[in-house]
Amino acid sequence: MSGQLTRRNREDLLIRDVSHAFALDGGPLPVLDHITLDIAAGSFVSLLGPSGCGKSTLLRLIAGLEPPTEGDILAGGELVREPGPSRILAFQDATLFPWATVWNNVATGLAARHELKGREHEIDAALELVRLGGFAKAYPHQLSGGMAQRAALARALVNAPQILLLDEPFGKLDSLTRMTLQGELLAIWKRTGFTGVLVTHDVEEALLLSDRVIVLSDRPARIIREFTVAAPLPRRRDDPAIVRLRGEILSALGHAEPASGQAA
After folding, report:
1. Cis? peptide before 68, omega within 30° of 0
2. How do residues 55-109 score in pLDDT, each as one tens digit?
3. Which range of residues forms the domain containing residue 223?
């Protein structure tokens, strides 16, 4: 691997009694309802809940893209008031610039902050980390969906984020590509030590990647259950502990599985 990514000090993420509402038709539309959550530095947490319940909104608040209506969010003991390179949000769509090479797409954040000079090796290192070292000069239209998502992940990682926020990053990929990237994300997390917060609708994905799974209610979202995943990494989908937790989480989401031998 040519060069190393810059590492930042880890920081805890604290969400304190956060509520949020959007203005709609002249009145407030409540989205989050008094969310309090402590996420230890270097841990990986997944958020599960019904579609539209407010999971992605919570990620946006953590990223500093907008302030919460009520409550506070602290990263490293500092109030989150605006976006910053220590908190990076990766979306479901890779959103690569079609006119730029993969290398230049990954360099976007550093270039925008006028920090690219002298750190070019970190672009190369990020591409090697996501197994795109041979595609630095390629353009987005020459990449598969999984490769494009790898490039988007490299673009996030090159900023050496303390907190990486992932909004269903593999949601549009086929199942085999998704499984591959889940494993690669896990390896990158173990290697770089970022604090991960993942929004997903895939219960197995949450269980394979996370230390904790947070289950949210329908909108306005509130925390209804928390699950600790103690199985050692890497995990198997057929691990009895994972299968048991999957059933408990589905039940908490109101989707109990049929008993063994019973028709679905």
Report:
1. no
2. 999 999 999 999 999 999 999 889 999 998 889 998 888 889 999 999 999 999 8
3. 13-252
Total number of domains constituting the chain: 1
- Helix-then-strand count for the chain, H and E: 8, 10
Distance (Å, whole) CA 28 – CA 63: 22
Query: Angle 97-201-237 (CA atoms, 0-180°, nearest 5)?
Result: 110
Rounded distance between C-alpha atoms, residue 91 and residue 51, angstroms: 16
- Judged against a pLDDT cut of 90, whether residue 214 lies above it is answered with yes
Spatial distance between the Cα atoms of 163 and 18, rounded to a whole number of angstroms: 18
39 in a structural domain: yes
Q: What is the pTM of this model?
A: 0.88
| Cβ–Cβ < 8 Å for 135, 106 | no
User: Rounded to whole angstroms, how far apart are CA atoms 208 and 242?
Assistant: 8
Question: Alpha helices, DSSP H only, in 101-199?
Answer: 102-106, 108-112, 120-129, 145-157, 175-192
Token pair listed for 134: 């041979």
Residue 264 has pLDDT above 50, yes or no: no
Query: Vertex 184, ends 182 and 187: CA angle to 5°?
Result: 110
pLDDT digits (tens, 9 = 90+) for 103-129: 999 999 889 888 888 888 999 999 998
Q: Is 188 domain-assigned?
A: yes
Q: Which helix (H) or strand (E) holds 79?
A: strand 78-79
- DSSP state letter for 258: P
Tokens of 8: 């930042």
For β-strands 223-228 and 212-216, DSSP reports them as antiparallel
pLDDT higher than threshold 60 for residue 5: no
Q: How many CA atoms lie within 13 A of 169 on its CB side?
A: 30
CATH number at residue 135: 3.40.50.300
